[in-house]
Design brief:
The chain is of the alpha/beta class and 190 residues long. It has a single domain, classed as Rossmann fold. It is 24% helix and 25% strand. The chain is built from 3 helices and 8 strands; from the N terminus they run E-H-E-H-E-E-H-E-E-E-E. The strands form 2 sheets. Strands 3-2-4-5-6 form a 5-stranded parallel sheet. It has a 3-stranded antiparallel sheet with strand order 1-8-7. Helix 2 links the parallel strand 2 and strand 3. Helix 1 crosses helix 2.
Length: 190
């Protein structure tokens, strides 16, 4: 879905780039040892934001930072409520998560259910030393006790609004937009 007049842009391309750079600096400031860091993006939006964070971390630290992608489809707690067969896009973790400081990345944090599913998926691959959460936007309305460690921007919303993240990797201009009349099941993140 592309940006339309009824959507309000709350983060543009320049602000998105700054937010990703700031998050990357904060990740390195928390622990100077970048050798144990690995970035894992949650498909789909978190994958591309995560790849950008990984690139910034590598540039800042001058170290190779492992990157992977996790598909949480089979870990969702609403899977039994859908009559449709889920579409699996695959998990790609070309490194061992055991003992790593995992920076889990998503584009939008809403209820916390996507992050809970991602944590379950990661634990199936090993036991990280620590898992931290980085999100481009936090819109509030948590249903689970999940809190991000790194946030690009907090965007206060109403539960019936929706947040749309557009990315150049998906054919759009980088941006975050808020719209009205959220229809259940239409939002990509949570």
């Amino acid at each position: 879905m592309s940006s339309s007049p009824e959507l309000k842009t709350v983060i543009d391309a320049t602000q998105m780039k700054r937010a990703i750079t700031r998050i990357s600096y904060e990740i390195l400031e928390r622990d100077a040892n970048s050798k144990g860091i690995a970035v894992v993006g949650i498909r789909t939006g978190g994958e591309f934001i995560g790849k950008r964070i990984q690139a910034a971390l590598q540039e800042l630290s001058q170290e190779e930072i492992p990157f992977g992608v996790i598909d949480i489809t089979l870990y969702r707690d609403d899977l039994s409520h859908s009559a449709e067969q889920p579409t699996l896009k695959g998990t790609e973790l070309p490194f061992s998560v055991s003992g790593k400081r995992i920076v889990l990345v998503d584009d939008v944090l809403f209820t916390g259910r996507t992050v809970r599913a991602a944590l379950d998926a990661i634990i199936d691959f090993g036991r990280p030393s620590r898992v931290e959460l980085a999100v481009l936007t936090d819109r509030g309305h948590r249903e689970l006790p999940i809190r991000p460690d790194y946030v690009g921007k907090n965007i206060p919303t109403h539960p019936d609004q929706f947040v749309e993240v557009t990315l150049s990797e998906l054919g759009g201009a980088d941006g975050v937009h808020v719209g009205e009349n959220f229809a259940s099941g239409d939002e990509d993140s949570e």
